[in-house]
Amino acid sequence: MTNITNEELWQTVLSQIQFSISRANFATWFKNAKIISNKNGEATICVENSFAQEWINNKYSSLILKILRNMDPEIKSLNFLINPQKNIFTTKDKSLKELREEEVISTRLPLQELSVNQKTNINSCYTFENFIVGDFNQMAHAAAWTISETPGSIYNPLFIYGGVGLGKTHLVQATGNRIAKLFPHKKIKYISCERFVSGIIEAIKSQKIADFKKEYKEIDVFIIDDIQFFTGKEKSQEEFFHIFNLLYHSQKQIILTCDTPPKGISALEERLKSRFEGGMLVDIGIPDIETRMAILKTKAAEKNIELEKEILEYISSNIRNNIRELEGALNKLVFFKKINNKVLDIETVKKLLKNLILFPKKKTSFKNIIQVVSNFYDLTEKELLLTSRRKEIVKPRQIAMYLLRQELNESFPSIGRKFNGKDHTTVMYAWDKIDKGIKENDDLMSEINLIKQKLYNTTL
Ligand code: ADP
Ligand code: MG
Asked: In the chain, pLDDT over 70 holds for what percent of residues?
């Protein structure tokens, strides 16, 4: 039982949700909603109309449940009630307009929070069975699969890196799920780096750091997600380093994910970087169009929606960088179909996905390239632009020059001038070196792809 009132519960939900949603949507959907009861593990939210119910339920129920459970772990499910006095709204005509006005669609998974195992923190919906494999993720998949059969013995640590929405979390949780199935006695723990860090801060505050560490020392399989979040958090890195070493030396499996390779994480202690690099490093790239079609088809089938080939092609040729966005597009169509009960034709699809697809292609600039490259290699912009010949600066500088040429079509002499008056032949040499380099060296290629992703911020 809890002492928190319904009003307090709802206020907390509102205060956390408002940051992940546009003001217009917040005002439209959440303003008149409230929690009217919380008993027997079920919280009931009263909403203004069925449209609000659909919308909140579809997009925010898992987040709401998560927030509520943080305050009151007894809450297991959400229930919606439509306010009988206000139910005069019809969804018919408004839906398309509303959908169009919506900003970028929420990217949250429609997976039930309840599928999250309280002990391991892993969602049982993420499996190898529903993970689609293609060239772009084959290595990562193979490594994860092997680990699931022989945890702690071959690839340790496993470090998976790649851009946002490309399946890192799915893959590592699938690995955890499979290990749990094959080795029921093993203690598995998944945690996002963000939560790990706040756990440490909390433990330090309450002087319980020893307890905190003890919990981790007993784990057999430790999965930590999005470790780029360690950037600049020295104290947490230090604690993590100790836990890491301890587990590593007792042959416990460690799996890490990150949005860049270890060397791309700025302000990460060298000793941690070298630990990570000492294990198995695999990347997840961007799926090609055929794979995107296959993913879309599979997901559409899972959601019981049939899409014509033309529609599948339209979506997969326009949404390129992110599987989560593909799902977002699909969710939008499913939602539309559900409330309109109409056959989806390509024109409607184009209208519905306008915001996702016709988003003006982002442009980059000199400033942006310099900023992103120097950030990526943990250099200052000055170091990158000035003349130092230090080896660790030469390569990033050549990459910056290469990108200026590739992405902005700048002339060699003009690029040279920006780098403290370098001769255009130096720039040509740099361009040539990188251009050849990426054809011969996959690592360099994926490094540059990651930089490009950051450049265009291809995340949602
Ligand atoms: P990341 O952690 O890299 O940001 P996620 O693992 O959260 O990405 O994946 C985003 C969404 O795309 C999830 O809903 C996930 O289930 C789905 N997804 C990603 N990769 C695949 C895949 N290979 N097959 C099927 N679904 C995928
Ligand atoms: Mg993730």
From this structure: 88
